[in-house]
């Protein structure tokens, strides 16, 4: 349930409603927007059934939320959220770009990548220090050593760092070095991991699972938010279908759907979505045209020598071309 307060409701009115909610053993979430003051009721709604909440001073009306995800729902939070990652706003007027190699391979490779990414205009450097791979024989990442390289790259360039966390045990290490924690597709429904990143206090980038429905994806965000972390950003990275030409099927309809269902921002990863570097630029442009709040692209100084995902990584030249086109389209979209 959400309780919509009257625009002229006083702080005392709000406090009284919150007190009644908590007296029933429920949790109250207060949201103050530009137009509305809303109190969300979290928990077993039967405990609140006998309360004449609409008759309480300052209450305009109450609305039942039928969805299993409450905190992530636009019903619960009508205004779009902007997630601040150490000064970079995701969900604002400008699309945010996250770019870099799939994996941190060496100090030299990462620092070179960071300079390329910075020069192209991105705000985030992405790079995996922990790499969950389909094959146990594939490169698994440099782990803590890789995190240190990422931190050094941030010091040199000012780029924010987003990197994946794959286990509960690694959260402390990753949170020490990263500005934003990424939950990869394979871990979207690792509920223990979701709960722990919800408690760590860092913004979270939540990738869609390999075959996840929108409802499952939204409920995964709910696990994080229910632990007290409202700073979640969705990332559409393609889903598995019958098509074999592309690595995945990039579901750009998910952008419009998430924008309708949730107040949280959503970005798109055309690299994993297609698996082919030639398709990254057109799909990046399509993502911006669909209303995405940003992009995540794989870029490598020399994709032919990449230890992972070289086929879908942009060269520095192709990255610059893609960024120039994205900036032009984003500027045009702001005029509509």
Work out the strand percent. Answer: 15-25%
Question: What ranges have pLDDT less than 50 throughout 5 or more consecutive residues?
Answer: none
The CATH class name of the largest domain reads Alpha Beta
Shape: elongated
Description:
- The chain is of the alpha/beta class and 336 residues long.
- The protein has 2 domains: 2-63, Phospho-2-dehydro-3-deoxyheptonate aldolase, domain 1 (Alpha-Beta Plaits, 2-Layer Sandwich), CATH 3.30.70.1140; 83-333, TIM Barrel.
- It is built from 10 helices and 14 strands.
- The strands form 3 sheets. It has an 8-stranded parallel beta sheet with strand order 13-12-11-10-9-8-7-14.
- Helix 2 (107-120) packs parallel to helix 3.
- 46% of the residues are buried.
Summarize the structure.
This protein has ten helices and 14 strands. It has helices at 11-23, 107-120, 144-157, 171-177, 191-200, 214-225, 253-261, 270-274, 277-289, 316-333, and strands at 2-5, 27-32, 37-42, 59-63, 83-85, 88-90, 96-100, 124-126, 160-164, 180-183, 204-207, 232-236, 266-268, 294-298. The protein has an eight-stranded parallel β-sheet with strand order 13-12-11-10-9-8-7-14.
Features:
34% helix, TIM Barrel, alpha/beta, 2 domains, eight-stranded parallel sheet, four-stranded antiparallel sheet, 336 residues, Alpha-Beta Plaits, single chain
Q: What secondary-structure arrangement, pairings included, does this model have?
A:
Layout: E1 2-5, H1 11-23, E2 27-32, E3 37-42, E4 59-63, E5 83-85, E6 88-90, E7 96-100, H2 107-120, E8 124-126, H3 144-157, E9 160-164, H4 171-177, E10 180-183, H5 191-200, E11 204-207, H6 214-225, E12 232-236, H7 253-261, E13 266-268, H8 270-274, H9 277-289, E14 294-298, H10 316-333
Parallel strand pairs: 7-8, 7-14, 8-9, 9-10, 10-11, 11-12, 12-13
Antiparallel strand pairs: 1-3, 1-4, 2-3, 5-6
Helix pairs in contact: 2-3, 2-10, 5-6, 9-10
């Amino acid at each position: 349930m959400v309780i919509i307060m009257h625009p002229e409701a006083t702080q005392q009115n709000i406090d009284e409603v919150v007190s009644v909610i908590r007296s029933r053993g429920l949790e109250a979430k207060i949201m103050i927007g530009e137009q509305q003051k809303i109190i969300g009721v979290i928990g077993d709604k039967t405990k609140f059934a006998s309360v004449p909440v609409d008759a309480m001073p300052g209450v305009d009306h109450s609305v039942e939320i039928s969805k299993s995800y409450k905190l992530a729902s636009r019903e619960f939070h009508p205004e779009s959220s902007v997630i601040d990652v150490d000064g970079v706003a995701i969900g604002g007027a400008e699309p945010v770009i996250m770019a870099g190699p799939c994996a941190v391979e060496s100090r030299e490779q990462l620092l070179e990548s960071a300079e390329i990414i910075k020069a192209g205009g991105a705000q985030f450097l992405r790079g995996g220090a922990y790499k969950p791979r389909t094959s146990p024989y594939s490169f698994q990442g440099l782990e803590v050593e890789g995190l240190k390289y990422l931190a050094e790259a941030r010091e040199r360039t000012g780029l924010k760092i987003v990197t994946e966390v794959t286990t509960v045990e690694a959260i402390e290490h990753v949170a020490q070095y990263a500005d934003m924690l990424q939950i990869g597709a394979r871990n979207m429904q690792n509920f223990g991991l979701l709960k722990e990143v919800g408690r760590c206090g860092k913004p979270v980038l939540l990738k869609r699972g390999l075959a996840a429905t929108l409802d499952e994806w939204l409920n995964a965000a709910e696990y994080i938010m229910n632990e007290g972390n409202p700073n979640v950003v969705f990332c559409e990275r393609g889903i598995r279908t019958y098509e074999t030409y592309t690595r995945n099927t990039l579901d750009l309809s998910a952008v419009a759907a998430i924008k309708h269902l949730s107040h949280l921002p959503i970005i798109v990863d055309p690299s994993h979505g297609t698996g082919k570097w030639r398709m990254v630029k057109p799909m990046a442009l399509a993502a911006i045209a669909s209303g995405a709040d940003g992009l995540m692209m794989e870029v490598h100084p020399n994709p032919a020598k990449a230890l992972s995902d070289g086929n879908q990584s942009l060269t520095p030249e192709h990255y610059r071309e893609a960024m120039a086109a994205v900036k032009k389209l984003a500027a045009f979209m702001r005029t509509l």
